Amino acid sequence: MLPAFVRSDEKRLRQIIINLLSNALRYTEEGAVTFKLTYRNEVAIIEVSDSGIGIAPEFIDRIWRPFERGERRDIQGSGLGLTITKLLVEILGGEIEVESTLGKGSVFRVRLMLPSVTPSVFDPRIMDLESKALPVNGYDGPRKTILVVDDDFNHLALAENFLTKYGFVVLCASSVDMAETMLADAAPDIILLDIDMPGRDGWSFARDLRTGRHQNTPIVMISGHANEEGLHRAALGLHDAFFAKPYNLDELLLQIAELLKVKLIMGKNRSVPVLRSLTEHERKRLLDAAEIGHASALRAELDDLRVAGVGPVSLMRAFEACLEQFDMEGLARLLEDHHEDA
Questions:
Q1: What whole-number distance in Å separates Cα of residue 25 and Cα of residue 22?
Q2: According to a count of CB atoms within 10 Å of the terminal CB, is the N or C end of the chain lower?
Q3: Directed axis angle between helix 280-291 and helix 295-307, to 10°?
Q4: Of the given ranges (14-18, 84-88, 126-130), which has the lowest mean pLDDT?
Q5: What is the CA radius of gyration of the chain?
Q6: Helix 280-291 and helix 328-341, axial crossing angle in degrees, nearest 10
């Protein structure tokens, strides 16, 4: 039986499934493509099977290489789909395999650990489906302290404003040195640690924490690069969770609640902040940055807008999704459509 919620990298998992389905459809001119998902002991097995052209035995090992299309050269596409899929699966700590018979079809099988979210953290039946936001009012038990370490003051302000309204005590440090000074007098229950900081980076600080008196303190690593965790496999024991910027704040809240083993107080009467609309000046700044492909400027602008309480939420999340995939044309279209609607 599938759990209501599992913990994983939503964007990467979605991309794996999309890539496998797209590949199956591309090579199946007639017949069927079947998607199957099984789940047991927190291990998910994703199977995508097709009745397409199949793969000859001598080409099986080559399909994972960039720009390979087996014996078919007339198929449209970049030739990178399966290469990227295999990389994403490995980043998530899983494995992928293929069984194929030439002329009869193929079965791609992915095995992934997808831990279920602790049921006591929240009740999924009272999710606010319309806004996609968790109706959380706070949490039960003693107050918990969160140390946020990030050299970006916008991210510090965003994390502090978001977490304090749920009753967390939030300590903010703009450098590793400042965090060490705070830790001399404070004992946070969890640490949110940015990786990309000048001087000492997050990985080296996490290593120091694990060899000191914070061996068991949960550490959440945060990075502006989605592939950062996969590049530091040897450091997996240094942290308990990983988020790529821009991250979903409700997902961060759930992760914190799970790591701290606290029960969130849910209710339909959650106060919804009043969000103002995107001004023409702000829209123009975003559009200018998108047209020249300035990703870092876009990320900074979106962070500023979130802190300023700009909405609607669905539009801001659409901007973030385009930025995550470096889809500047899509982001520009969203901005143009928003201008026409206004």
A1: 5
A2: N
A3: 160
A4: 126-130
A5: 22
A6: 160
The residue type at 295: A
Token duo for residue 146:
């969160």
Classify the C-alpha dihedral 24-25-28-32 as positive or negative: positive
Render pLDDT for 223-257 as a digit per residue (tens, 0 to 9): 876 555 554 444 557 888 888 777 778 888 888 99
Strands (E), the chain: 33-40, 43-50, 95-101, 105-113, 136-139, 145-149, 169-173, 190-194, 219-223, 241-244, 264-266, 276-277, 310-311
User: How far does Cα 161 stand from its chain's mean position?
Assistant: 21
How many C-beta neighbours within 10 Å does residue 85 have? 23
Q: Does residue 198 have a cis peptide bond before it, meaning omega lies within 30 degrees of 0?
A: no
What Cα–Cα distance (Å) separates residue 236 from each residue in 49, 122, 220?
33, 27, 11
Question: Of 131, 92, 96, which Cα lies nearest the Cα of 10?
Answer: 92
Q: Please state, in angstroms and rounded to a whole number, the distance separating the CA atoms of residues 127 and 183.
A: 36
pLDDT at 71 over 70: no
